[in-house]
Amino acid sequence: MKSTKRCELSIGALAVLGTALLLPAAGFAQDQTAPDNSATNQQHKTTADQQTEASGDRQITQKIRRAVTSDKSLSVNAHNCKIITRNGTVTLKGPVDSEAEKQTIASKAAEVVGSPDKVNNELTVKQ
Prior knowledge:
CATH topology of the domain at 45-127: Histidine-containing Protein, Chain: A
Largest sheet: 3 strands, mixed
Distance between the termini: 66 Å
Strand content: 15-25%
CATH architecture of the domain at 45-127: 2-Layer Sandwich
Number of strands: 3
Helix content: 40-55%
Shape: globular
Number of helices: 5
């Protein structure tokens, strides 16, 4: 008999706990929408869809992306910067955490394309 009561209490406790987990967190409005970064994206008019389908351009972008993401000293912002290659010229866009990151990414891109003159560094340092 005792084991039955324990089981009933456990099921009841789980029901209460489950209900509490489904309730919205304090101070969170259920009608909130996901964050919108459209304004930020409009500042960066060059977008990934402007990347050409030429295999050489894609390979350049891939090599730069690998070099950037494999550098664990860079921030998440730096790892997520936009890298667009058109006709062998690379454009870098997006926010990074420091001037040093901005220069590091530009250097990696220049190394891949063979010349800093083929890199448009439009990265912005977050304030």
